[in-house]
Amino acid sequence: MAPPADPAETAAPTEPACALTWEAIVLDTDTDEGIPDAQLVLQTGDDERPSFTRSGRDGRVRVTGLCPGSLRVRASKSEHASLALEVQVQADAEPTIIELEPHHDHHSAHVIVIHGEGPTNVSTSESLAGAELARARGQGLADTLSSMSGVSTLRGPAGGMGKPIIRGQFGRRNSIVVDGVRHEGQEWGLDHAPEVDPYAAGRITVIKGAGTIRFGPEAVGGVVLLEGLPLLRSPGLNGEVSSVGFSNPMGGGGAARIDWAPARGRGFAMRVEGNLSRHRAALTPDYALDNTGASTWNVGTRMGYASERADFELGYHLMRSRLGICTCLRISSPEEFKLSLDRGEPVNAALYTAAFALERPRQEIWHHLAFARTRVMLASAGELHATYAFQFDDRREFEIVRGDTQGAQLQFGLATHSADLRFEHSAVHMRGWALVGTLGASVSQQSNEFESASSLIPDYRQWSWAVYDVERFVHDRVELEVGARYDGLHRNALLSERDYLGQDAGDRLDPDSCDPATSGDGGRCTHQFHAPSVSVGVLGRPIRAAPEFSWRTQLDSSARIPAIDEQFMNGAAPSFPILGFGDAKIGIERSWGGESTLQYDGDWLFVEAAGYATYIDDYIYFVPQPQPGQCAPLTCTTRGPFPVFAFVPTDALFGGGEVRFDLTAPRLPFGLSGNAAWVRAIDLGSRSYLAFVPADRYALAGRYFWPDTKVSSRGYLELNGTVVARQTRVDAELDFAPAPSAYVLLGAGAGVEFAAGQQLVHMSLVGTNLLNLRYREYNSLLRYFADEPGWGVQLRVSVDFDVPLGRNAAV
Question: Alpha-carbon distance 181 to 209, whole Å?
Fold first, then answer.
């Protein structure tokens, strides 16, 4: 929610001889249009206090009462690179042109269109960038996205991490793309959070609904795009230093980014960045969530060369995380599990502590991402883009063990090579229409090595490939998009002898695809999959006199290939002690869906309403399996009692809707925003409700913008609330505990910006669950064992700096 843009005329402190006026216009380098509400920090001398002003709705700025001489200016706007320059103030001068480069091409305040890389006009999407993204720094990816309509969190028991849920779909049905590379990690665990660094993103966009044509068969539910800030295009040295502190869980962290483009090496630029965080175990209103601390650090670098005809870029990013797993998950008997549910807290909660130490059980993760990409102009034909990436995900899980055992009980090593090639052809004009589009192909090779004394996920090798074409016919008030994609995958799974015999005895292996090894030391399962997908969408602006109104409709048929765990899971992991079973007979999951969206995007009001429905044939359902017997509803094993889950194909129907709005009162310092989301999902086979579907959710936030002063700008106070209904659409026989009660969370925040010399300082203070409400979240794996954290406060401070190198302007 942005403050209202006021007429941009500022009177500087005057002396009798200081009566000059400086005028400027702030332009977008891509569109040459004026940028409204851009912030300018003005300083006339080293000892003078900086003053603030903002551009008007047409991007113009007018400052009066200036003395002749030098004026230092720093211009900034969210979604644009900031710019520092020095001008000479003198009589009868022409207006200064200040050009800001957009971080991401073809953007608007609410719907983002990134040709070839991001959502198209016909997709419903929502983004975080600039100040809104900065206020979420220090959180995991799922929590960063949870403020968006239609997005919630499947929370795990490890260090407060979780997976994003988009329109009721989570995990492998949502694709995550980091800097144009599809993220590959150990997604088989319900609690395994994506190994990505939100701190490194300059913008995060969520595409809601199937994005399979551009992003692959995993994007049935949606796509999360994390895009880094582009490298500098003009000579300079700039960056950001920031810190964040949390009260619950107590801890903090810091981050730094430095960008450099030399004045004598036009086109070359590089970046170095890194961040770290550490926090102790979280506190519920009544007890500590023992052993839920976390330690994470990230480092990265990239360098590139850019020109009008070609771009080249190399990058590397390393993520390291150590995540404690709540002690509350360890149960010694079914009676203890039932007693914990009846009491509403873990049996041994009085012994829990909020310590920084990370004990067993815990997870340790290393994730490497390296990439090389290029863009080449092919004369008037268009642009050719090529990317090669390598990812290695090293995950280790530590169980509670006896004796002096030091190593991990489970170790996974996932290596992925991928290459993408796409051609964005130039517009073809046809009687008032323009045809633009992208043709692409990709190939990937992946291998996984699993080390453990017990079975869980087999070693496997797989090749995948795809070809696709997306074309858009653009008219003045109508756009039509059609797309098609074809995916193929060849997978070889290598099962140990114990694993093969156990799954064969349970009739979970396909005899046409699986064979025992001739040497008697296991078996091999070979599968071939082919998955075509198509989509068609329309964007219309039905009212010529009111272009703020738009209507979008999209229809799609997508196919998803089963993941390795869905076919071969056989065991339990320390990260979440459930006994899970796959089925090698599971085949492709086919969805048929559609959505429609109405939107109004005016100067002071934004409203969007969307509805969608999806039928999924052979939906791969990871469903609880309550067991009979002496350990009911759990099952007894030599390692203790475990809940049982299994992958079962069924036919499913998903549907729902979302509403969001953003109101900025004209000429008043107030703003109001809100959203609501509803999801319904039915198992058509059993005529019952599906598990793990988010409950109805409503959010409302009101904000007061206090006036800019000579020392501060963009100050605000905010009060917000979130209402989550009880999930009543559940099958009680397919769960281990009743759905938790509805709850209301109250939050508040405040923020301000001020200049310190040529540096811009941002500060924000955010409070969550301020009523210290005791509650459990239906989509949290923790809900069977413990409550969610209580009240907390987060303080964030960041400093932007910019040193121009050969970018001075004179008037």
Answer: 20
In angstroms and rounded to an integer, the radius of gyration of the C-alpha atoms of the chain is: 27
Which whole number is the average pLDDT over 761-772? 95
**CA distance from start to end of the chain:** 35
Q: Do residues 165 and 151 lie in contact, with contact meaning Cβ atoms separated by under 8 Å?
A: yes
pLDDT in tens, 505-516: 999 999 999 998
DSSP 5: P
542: number of Cβ within 10 Å: 11
Structure letter (DSSP) for residue 780: B
Which residue(s) pair with 158 in the sheet?
325
801: β partners: 239
Which residue type, as a one-letter code, is found at position 484?
A: A
User: What pLDDT sits at residue 5?
Assistant: 46
> Percentage of the chain with pLDDT > 90?
52
Q: What is the mean pLDDT of residues 545-566?
A: 92
**Would strands 250-261 and 268-279 be described as parallel, antiparallel, or unpaired?**
antiparallel
Confidence of residue 810 (pLDDT cuts 50, 70, 90): very low
3-state class (DSSP) for residue 213: helix
Question: Could you tell me if 200 and 317 are in contact, meaning their C-beta atoms sit under 8 angstroms apart?
Answer: yes
Residue 380 pLDDT level (bands cut at 50, 70, 90): confident
Q: What is the pLDDT of residues 279-316, one digit of tens each?
A: 999 999 999 999 999 999 999 999 999 988 899 999 99
Q: Which two tokens stand for residue 613?
A: 């429905």
Helix (H, G, I), strand (E, B) or coil at 190: coil
Q: Which domains does the chain have, with CATH numbers?
A: 9-100 (2.60.40.10), 225-231+241-804 (2.40.170.20)
- Other beta carbons within 10 angstroms of residue 547's beta carbon come to 11
Inter-residue contact 188 to 133 (CB < 8 Å): no
Contact in structure between 663 and 705 (CB atoms under 8 Å)? no
Query: Tokens in use for 286?
Result: 């009544």
Going by C-alpha positions, the residue among 530, 514, 593 that lies closest to residue 556 is 593
Query: Can you tell me the distance from the alpha carbon of 97 to that of 811, in angstroms, rounded to the nearest whole number?
Result: 10
Count of beta carbons in the 10 Å neighbourhood of residue 106: 14
Spatial separation of the C-alpha atoms in residues 501 and 495, rounded to whole Å: 9
Q: Given 3-state DSSP classes, what are the helix, strand and coil percentages for the chain, each rounded to the nearest 5? A: 5, 55, 40
CA distance 157 to 195: 16
* pLDDT bucket at 159, cuts 50 / 70 / 90: low
Integer CA distances (angstroms), 717 to 101, 518, 605, 706, 747, in order: 30, 71, 20, 8, 11
Rounded-to-integer distance, Cα 317 and Cα 686, Å = 46
558 CB burial (10 A radius; 0-12, 13-18, 19+): buried
Side by side, the strands of the sheet bearing 69-76 are 51-54, 39-43, 69-76, 83-89
Tokens of 795: 């303080």
Q: Which residues contact 265 (CB under 8 A, 6 or more apart)?
A: none
pLDDT for 14: 45
Q: What is the pLDDT of residue 10?
A: 58
* CA neighbor of 523 nearest in space, from 500, 506, 504, 507: 500
Task: Let me know: does 145 contact 313? Beta carbons within 8 Å.
Answer: no
The stretch 318-331 carries a mean pLDDT of 90
Closest CA to 140 of 166, 165, 159, 167: 159
Q: Do the beta carbons of residue 195 and residue 185 sit within 8 Å?
A: yes
**pLDDT tens digits along 467-515:** 999 999 988 889 999 999 999 999 999 999 889 998 999 999 999 999 9
In this predicted structure, the answer to whether residue 111 has a pLDDT above a threshold of 60 is no
User: What six digits make up the tokens of 403?
Assistant: 């004796």
